[in-house]
Each structure stands twice: as structure tokens, then as C-alpha cells.
Design a protein that fits this description.
single chain, 447 residues, alpha/beta, Gyrase A, domain 2, Four Helix Bundle (Hemerythrin (Met), subunit A), Rossmann fold, six-stranded mixed beta sheet, 47% helix, flat
Length: 447
Amino acid sequence: MSDTIAAVATAGGVGSVAIVRVSGEKAPAIAKALTRRDAFIPRHAHLCDLYDTAGELIDEAIVLWFKAPHSFTTEEVVEFQCHGGTVVAEKILDTVLAHGARLAEPGEFTRRAFLGGRIDLSEAEAIAKLIEAKSEDAAKILARQMKGELRRFVDEMRERLLRAVAFAEVTIDYAEEDLPPDIVDDLLRQLEEMEAQIGRIVASSERRRGLIEGFKVAIVGKPNVGKSSLLNAMLDYERAIVSDIAGTTRDTIEEQLRIGSHLVRIVDTAGIRESADTIEKIGIERSVRAIEESDIVVAMFDASRPWDTEDAKILALLERYKHDKEILVVLNKADLPRKLDTTTLEGWAPMTLDREKKGEKMIDALKARLDTMAEGDELMLVSARQIDAVKRAQAAIAQAKEPLGMGELEIFSYHLNEAIVAIASISKPVDFNDIMDKMFGEFCLGK
């Protein structure tokens, strides 16, 4: 990390302020060259004129110097806070590069913070996810993780596993003697507690993943049941074409909508039915895929039409996904004479919608369900990488229980070491080069 890196650290486009960040050994010298100043006071804001390599004035800007190691990257860091827009920031960046810095790679500032010991991987991931957070709840969760909440869980779990491994290693020398039953029982109890705790965290994290990524809601039903009109009512404008002709919607239509504190993607799907039309069949296949990818399924039935085979097909899909998805069953057109036999749907507690305020009523129902999904005091894992690591640790702990009961301490110790490596990979992996290349490569430039 001997070279000096630089990048524009603010989003592109028109804005009042833009920031050019420089990190590395040459940062103070570059700042002096651009400002023609001899010195800076650490952590003080200096109002300076900035000049390019030809001596032409670029801008009047605020210059901040963070002396190593008291900076985010733990290196010498300088920030130029200039007037917003693309031109000025890019001109400053070009001048900084001309004075010996190189353009930073995506996530390289955060990577240097990790390598410098300022943060661990869990905190780095929280920084990346906070930029993309889709709800207020997500921001709160990620702020706690940036303060080390997940790191403390990992350290505690690793310490408990290390104590168990240490016991096994010490006891191996006395393997010919029977282990005291109370010690074995105590270790088994501890392993079961850890396994259960990890299981709760994984389940809670998967249930609440929409807090980070945004929840996805799929509206499904047979053709001409009112899916598109419901989408339009929720958005309060005519987004989807509505007609009495079955099969009008032939592809999925997605729109974003804020419901309470949650950012939600609403997907209006093609009507699900048997069809010989090639284009319509593709749309129906996408509808089924939308169900698989959604967090909540809104299943619509037409209360003004008799139950038919197409309704039965929708119900069969609900039965297939009822253990994996949150499902809201809706009886649409409830203001018309009822012809639908709803006895088949009694176990689904269907809600009714008529023409009046159906968009508001649907939004209220979704908000209640989303708020419930967001609840939970369990620690939350915020990436697929973290969830996979914890699941691997859980599997290794489960595998360790049998050899412990049989007194096979070498195998017991082997599985626990697998669990330690897996859980440690969340914050400070033993072999982290591949993980770092993939993870930091997904950061935005300048972060």
C-alpha cells in the first residue's frame, strides 16, 4: 500500500459540494502542490485556492488533512471539498493524478481501512450496504454493525469454540480414560445452544433480508382478475394497461413504492392460465418466477365469478409456497354480486377489496405485514457471504456432537476447527484474499 490513491468520493451529477479523496504517503505533498501552502493543521478546515499543473485556478475549496494513523484508511488522507458538479471535481482529480497519485479501485479506501486494522470485514460490509439501504430499519441495523455488533458476536462464538477445542486437545493425551459424563454433557449442551442461536440468527436474517435489499411483492392471479388495476390504484396513476380482454398483461411490470419505512418493488404479473400463445406462455413462466423471487405474494381471486380450474391452479401455487413466502389472499370486486364459493379459501383469511380506496387498503395490509417481517431483536446478517459462513459453522458444530458422545476427540476437534474457520471468515478470515477481491470489488468508486 505504498502508492497513493485518489477518487471522487461523491455521487456524480449536479450538487452543491463534491469531495475528492486522496489517501497515501504523498497526500500531504499533493495538497501543498495544489494549494501552494506550506503546511496544514490536522483535522482543521482550510479555505484554499486550488491550481492545476499549469498554474491555472481550478476552484476555491475546503481542504482537510487527516494525519496517519488517525484517518479512515489509517494512512495520510486529504479531502478536497469543492463546488459540486462533474467538471470541477474531475479537474481536481486529474491534477491530483498528475502529481503522482493513481485512480483508486472500487472499495480500495475501505480495503485499506481493513488492512490497517481500522475495521473488520463485517464492518466493511455494513458500510457498503448502508449506502444501498432501502429502509430506515436497515440503516439502524447497519449502523449497529458498523459499531461492531456482528464482530462481538463472532468473537464470542469463536471464543466458546476455542475453549471446547482446547479441552479436546488437552484431553486427547488421556483418551484411554473415560471422560467424566458431566463434562461431555456440558459440552453437548453448549454446542446445542450455539447451534440453536445460529439457527435463530439465520432464520431472522433471511426473513428480514428485504430490509437491506428492498422487499419484493408479486401480485398474482388468473387473467382479468384485477391485478393491473390494483397496481394502478396503489401507485395512484395508470401504470399498467387495464382492459376486459384476458391476457392483456403479457409480461411482468415492476414499480417501486415506499410503504411506511420500507422500499418495496411491486410486480404485476401476467395472468396464470393454460395458454397456447407463445408470448403469453413466456409471461406466465415469468409470473411463476416472480412468485419464487418475492417476499410477499398477493394472490387475487375474483369474487364476482364462479370458482374454476384457473382459480384452482392459483391455489395450488399458494400451497406450494405457503411455507416459504408471506401470502395475502385477496377477494377483488367485492362490491359486485358474489358468485365465488370461498369455502376453499377459508384457511387463508382472505381480505376483500372493492372499487373504493382499494389501493389504500392494500397498502395498509402490506405495511402491517412488512412491519411484522421487520420485527426482531436477533442480530442480523446482511449478506449472502455472512449467512453462508454462519451456516457452515452451524453444520460443523452439528457434526462435532456425535464424535464427542463417542469419545472420538480428534474428530470432534477437527469439526470444531472447521466451525472456527467458518465463523471467523465473517470478520477476520484466515485466508481472505479471494473474499476481499470479490467483496471490495462491489463497492462504489471512491469508497
